[in-house]
Amino acid sequence: MSTGLQEAQVGRTFIGRLATDTDLVEEIERFCADAGIQAAGVSAVGAMRRAAYAYYNQTTKQYKEMASPSHHELSGFVGNISMREGRPFLHAHATFADINGECVAGHLLKGCTVWVAEVEIRELVGVELVREHDELTGLALW
Ligand code: ZN
Fold first, then answer.
1. Where are the domains of the chain?
2. Ligand 1 mean position to 91 CA, how many Å?
3. Which CATH class name applies to 10-135?
């Protein structure tokens, strides 16, 4: 039985800090486009001035978008880069912790404003990850 997993090789690794008041998703995607990264694993740690995230409803096949304008720790972040409509696309899920340690979490959206973000991008080569519409889930998957 096929697992759908493919073998890839490790390419370049990038690590650095994003500028304050930039958009977390847009900055990572722009960096990957500029660096020619088409597949990667991405992790990040830091703090956000604004959090934006979503929950995908498996019944309606629609995202419920949410945002919080208060300050949060970026306490969890896991994601990947693949190609969607010819450009590097970040798919990430994140957990945001507030002043009381209470968390919200979900599918990361554009609209997260960086206070501090230390980002690590681990390029994958020898693999082609292209997102296309999947009828069963309603999502763009590879
Ligand atoms: Zn997601």
1. 10-135
2. 6
3. alpha beta
